[in-house]
Structures are given as C-alpha cells and as structure tokens.
Specification:
Elements lengths: L4 H33 L6 H20 L2 H5 L3 H27 L4 H28 L6 H20 L1 H7 L5 H21 L8 H47 L10 E8 L7 E7 L4 E9 L3 H17 L7 H13 L7 E9 L4 E7 L4 E5 L4 E5 L2 E2 L13 E4 L5 E5 L15 H11 L5 H15 L10 E8 L1
Parallel strand pairs: 5-8
Antiparallel strand pairs: 1-11, 2-3, 3-4, 4-5, 5-9, 6-7, 6-10, 10-11
Helix pairs in contact: 1-2, 1-9, 2-4, 2-9, 4-5, 4-6, 5-6, 6-7, 6-8, 8-9, 9-10, 10-11
C-alpha cells in the first residue's frame, strides 16, 4: 500500500473506481437479464439500453484503474487501452438510446439524431486511435453532443406540458429527481473539465447511480404496465375466442343419407373463417363456408356478423344464388375495406340433387364413387365487398351413394413447407382420392394431419383452416 499521502489518496481513488465500476457492470448485467426474461413486454428496450449503458460506464471506470491495469500482461494492457477508447465514446451512444426509448414524436427523432451523431464521432475517433494512438481526438465534439442532449432532455423533463406530450414517463417525480441530479452534475463536468479544473470521479458516479435508479424504476414501471395491458388483452381475446366458438354450430345436422364432419382451426385466438348449417328438414340442408380477408379481431367481428346475416336469410336456403345475394347486400355496408369470400351448398338427399354457388371462393370438390373421379366445381360470383354486380350463378350437381363433397377455405391449400411450396389443391385432391373409403370424420382428421405434416413445426400456422366433409350414404 502506498505510504505517502498523495499516492495513498490516489490509491483510494483507484479502489473507489474499481468498486463503483464493478457495481455498474453488475447493475448493467442484471438489467440485461431482466430485459431478456421480459423481452416480449412493452418498453423493455429501455431496460435493455439502460443495462448496456450501465455496463459500458462500469467498464470505463474499471479500465481507468491504472494499478489494476499494471498487474496485467503487456498484451492485455494494450487491449485495455483499446477498450477504454471504445467505451469512452460509446457510453454516450448507449445513454442517448436509453432516453430515446422514453421519448415520442419529435423528441424521439431529435434523440435518434444525436445518437447517430455520437456514433459517427465514436467511429472516427476509434479509427483515429487505432491509426495514431490519439484517444481524445474528438472528445470535445463528443462532450458538446452530450451537453446539448442533456440540456434539451432536461428541458423536456422539467416542463410538464412538454413531458406529457413528448415522453412516456408515468412517474415524473422520480424521473425528474434522477435527471436533474445527473444532468446538473454532467453539465457542470462537461463545461469545467475542458477548462482544466479537476472534478472528482466519485461525484459523477453518484450522479450516474441516481440516474440509473430513476431510469430503472421508470422503465420497469413501463414494462409492468405493458404486461398488465397485454394480460388484459389476452383475457379479452380468450373471452372473444369463447364467444366466437359459441356462434359456430355445436352439432352437425341430422340429414338422412348424409354424414357430415367439420374442422375449424383458427390461426390466432380469433379467426375470420366461418361456417354454418342451414337445415330445413330431415332430407334437406344448406352448408355455408365463408372467409374474411385479414386475420384477428377485425376479421372475427365480421365473421360474427355473417352468423347473424346467415340466420336472417335462412328462408332462402334452397336458393343458393338468392341466399348469397341477400347475404352480400346485408354485409355490403359493414365491411369497410375488407372482403369476404363465401361458398354455399344446398343438398336434397331425397332427390339426390345438390345446388352450389359461391362468391370468390375456392372450388367445391366432388368425389364420384361410381368412376373414382374427383371434380372441381366452380360457380363464382364476386367477393362480398366489391362493387361488382351481385350475380351468383348456380351449378346443379346430381349425386349418388358413395359420393363426397368438400367445402373449404384457402387456409387448407395455402400452407407452405420449409421450401416455400404451398400444400396446394392437388395435395388436397390426393388425400381425398387416397382415402375415398374412409368415413367423413376420419377423412377430416387425415386431411388436417396431412396439412400439419406439410408445414414444419417451427413455422406458425399461416391462415385459418376450415372445411366441411359431406358424404352421401
């Protein structure tokens, strides 16, 4: 331990740098761990950049400890000098990016500009240091950017009207206390140090520690508030999902000589696909499938409207063209900029005649047991929501025992594999042809499993999947 008072004071200062620097590194690492754990929460980027800022500040303090550096091998001492030059300039970049996450509007743009300016200064300064060994070449401009940034941020944090408009801070008192203490200390240091005055590092460390505490408190408040909002949204989506499933048929209609199976697999909590049965008597029923453009809540709301509209036009169940026309008229004023495709199949199991019409929907697939053939039946009018004339041509389809119908949305044929290839209509047909003897319920599971097997588990479901299998016995 040094014996003379000057060396003793210097040694104490070095120890303080080591302790405070290590503390800031630990604080930074903890913040980074918290940011990693809560990486999906709103506002977590502020915690992340706060951790980076604190760690860089701590590294700068530790690398200033000359007695510690002197204990290292020569090669490592050279590395420390490069590290010190790097963090001297990057500490400002990290600080500005931290504040950027707490700003909105023009203040966020201004802070972003300052951060980019500080980054450019860092790049040129570090390059100059590598070439010439001159570490503080652009320290003056760097300090000027820091002073300007602190001054502007302090003004916006101190003025309540500006703070409410341009910052995301909910607890202003805590943030103001930290910002004022740190800002005043940093402004004073950046002004008087270039004039040759000695400023003890402990005061800067204390100011930075107060700021870190206040920023951490504010940032975590944002994270917790975001998590509460997210939890509230998830709860509401769960209720919406329950309500959406409640509007779907709970059982299949009992129509003589028909066996029916349906599959409904939403991509998200709520979906834009919809299907409905319109049974009339023991021999006759209608089958409606619809697909709203887009996904999520907006599409789900329109799907719910289709439920009400379908029930209101049930009197036209035996006339597919009229049913779709009326359905389109009801929805036309409610869709906004969204579109709906729909397909409707009317089956009379007594006369063995089916009627089919659609509005911009994928074709109906019909398996013929007599000659083991699969037919694509298209009878498309315009999508609901387009300005086209509502003309929905009808196809009459005689059928016999053993025949099968498949109504589906494009979510069945469009899933892609790892190579970007769609499952495609031809694979849907292949599954139907290979399992012609399977009952409707079993075929529906095989078809769904084939789509899932085609799509890698690492790729999320890309669209809602809905289809109805109808077998004539």
């Amino acid at each position: 331990m040094p014996s003379d008072p000057q060396n003793h004071a210097r040694f104490i200062g070095e120890v303080i740098k080591l302790v405070t620097g290590t503390s800031f590194i630990v604080i930074g690492l903890v913040a980074l761990v918290v940011a990693g754990i809560r990486r999906r929460a709103a506002g977590v980027l502020a915690v992340f950049w706060l951790g980076v800022w604190s760690a860089i500040y701590g590294i700068q303090s530790v690398s200033d400890c000359s007695f510690l550096v002197a204990l290292l091998p020569h090669g490592m001492q050279v590395c420390v000098s490069y590290l010190h030059a790097l963090v001297t300039y990057l500490v400002l970049v990290a600080g500005l990016l931290t504040f950027r996450e707490l700003c909105v509007g023009r203040l966020r743009q201004f802070t972003t500009l300052l951060a980019l300016t500080a980054l450019l200064i860092a790049v040129f300064s570090i390059g100059r240091f590598v070439l010439t060994g001159e570490e503080y070449w652009l320290l003056g401009p760097n300090n000027f950017v820091a002073a300007v940034g602190l001054l502007v941020l302090l003004i916006f944090f101190l003025v309540p009207s500006l703070g409410r408009k341009y910052t995301l801070i909910s607890n202003r008192r805590v943030m103001l206390a930290g910002a004022i203490i740190f800002g005043l200390e940093a402004l004073f240091t950046n002004i008087v140090r270039p004039l040759g005055y000695q400023i003890y590092a402990i005061w800067g460390d204390l100011g930075f520690f107060v700021l870190i505490l206040s920023l951490g408190y504010v940032a975590m408040q944002q994270v917790y508030a975001g998590e509460r909002r997210l939890q509230s949204i998830e709860n509401e989506l769960a209720i919406a999902r329950q309500l959406q499933f409640a509007i779907l048929p709970t059982t299949t209609p009992h129509v003589r000589s028909l066996r029916i199976a349906a599959v409904y697999e939403p991509m998200t909590a709520v979906a834009g696909d919809f299907y409905e049965y319109l049974p009339v008597n023991d021999y006759r029923a209608g089958f409606l499938v619809a697909d709203v453009s887009g996904h999520g809540v907006p599409a789900a709301l329109i799907a719910s409207m289709i439920k009400v509209a379908a029930q209101s036009v049930a009197a036209c169940a035996a006339d597919p063209s009229e049913l779709l026309r009326r359905l389109g008229n009801i929805l036309s004023g409610q869709l906004g900029d969204q579109f709906v495709s729909a397909a409707y199949l009317w089956i009379d199991s007594e006369t063995r005649i089916a009627l089919y019409s659609a509005a911009g929907h994928p074709p109906l697939l019909c398996w013929r047991a007599a000659d083991h053939s699969l037919a694509r039946i298209e009878s498309n009018g315009p999508l609901f929501g387009t300005p086209c004339a509502p003309d929905f041509p009808v196809r009459e389809i005689p059928f016999a025992s053993g025949d099968r119908f498949l109504l589906y949305t494009d979510g069945l044929s469009e899933p892609e594999n790892a190579a970007g290839e769609s499952f495609g209509d031809h694979r849907v047909k292949q599954v139907l042809c290979d399992n012609a003897s399977r009952p409707a319920a079993e075929l529906s599971l095989l078809l769904l499993n084939a789509v899932r097997a085609w799509q890698p588990a690492s790729i999320p479901q890309q669209d809602d999947i809905t289809f109805i299998v109808i077998d004539a016995l």
